[in-house]
Amino acid sequence: MAPIQLLQVGCGGMGLRHIYGLIELRERGFDSFDLIALCDRNASSAEYVAGVAEKGLGIRPRIYSDSRDMLDAERSAEAVNIVTDTAAHHELALLAFEAGLHVVVEKPMALTVRACRTMISASKSAGLVLSVSENYRRDPINRMTKALLESGIIGDIRLSINLFTMGGPDVRQAAAWRHLKNRGGMILDYGVHVSDLTLYMLGDVERVYAETHLWQKTRKIAEPPDRMRKFYQHRVKEDFEEESSIIEASSEDTGVAVLRFISGAIGQITYSDASPGESSDTDIIYGSKGSLRLSVSRSGQPVKVTFLGRSDPVDSNDLLNEIPNFRLDEVTSRIFGSGDRIYQYDSSFDESDRKLIAVELQDFYGAVTSGRSPEVSGDVGLDAVAFSYAILESGHLSRPVVFNDVRQDRINSYQQEINEIINI
Ligand SMILES: NC(=O)c1ccc[n+]([C@@H]2O[C@H](COP(=O)([O-])OP(=O)(O)OC[C@H]3O[C@@H](n4cnc5c(N)ncnc54)[C@H](O)[C@@H]3O)[C@@H](O)[C@H]2O)c1
Asked: Whose CA is nearest to atom 13 of ligand 1?
């Protein structure tokens, strides 16, 4: 099969990381994509990322600063990878479908539930693939976790607790748009990972009750954290980030949600990036026979299963015996390179990050070339966005919401202002 002729829009921090994902694929022997052009409204960002692509892939992609110009000029293109910040996702996807191109788009799939639904219907009417780049579920340890839960190792699921708190007055990951309601605040931007993993591990949610709040009303533009600096150093600040080092936040930074799953299990998700002092990152599921603590995605650490009446967790190696049929898919095992039954791995954040991007892009390749659905299809991507909005809608309305009402866009009063701005 010939490589897919690929365009990429968005050359900020994640845009660069996608190039490392493409290089990883090539180095592992997958000749799946020819990256023919890059677009960013900041030409210098596109130039920088093109340099990295040239070094790692052997060919320098052409550069554009306007996506319409790129779509007009690149007649051999077959697909677009959308890695801009979330506000542009749906508009760019619609343009791509109009031009007859398949689309792979970073999470969150789009700014609102309605925007996601518009993308799904455009992809269906055009008969083109729509795939969402959700990386966390693809971590080999999360694949094993799902197999363990399905095996019934901790019995009937009763309770799931997800707690992520941190503090500080700085903008997250160098980009101030992450604190603006109309551009996708943190409960959408980070929360959508939790939403997708929760639905992946525990199945559909019936209803959600949440309290939400914006505590940190101003934030300071600061250097990205060390781990992210190399990815974001070329990023060009937006005008409003240049004008002042302090920005006004407009999206909720704290949400505490209580969930009822269709299965009957109960759950709780707490997210806050306005909780100074001790931070926490805990994801634990309780069943009738014991508990399962999830691994932090991309850490390579094993899951911890602790049985009723025992204080020590089960030896991680023994966990594999509980799931004799568990196998990673061929692409993941080839890219992670330690066989198809791994319960931990030892790689740096950068390495695991690019491997997971490689896996998701290869899934997109498979969907385009074979006609099958991608794993994280538009419908799956929509569910994760709707779940994050169920929390925000419930907090806004001060009452529980039925998840399906949010997914179907029947409850949308929090999102109304955003839908008006993006004109849908
Ligand atoms: N999966 C993950 O782990 C992960 C991690 C970080 C970011 N992301 C996602 O990746 C996306 C990008 O995030 P980021 O951190 O790279 O943001 P960023 O601000 O660093 O980069 C966004 C880039 O898109 C460009 N851009 C925006 N609109 C454009 C348009 N219409 N045409 C051309 N260029 C345009 C900007 O100029 C900027 O260079 C977001 O959706 C974010 O949620 C995912």
From this structure: 85
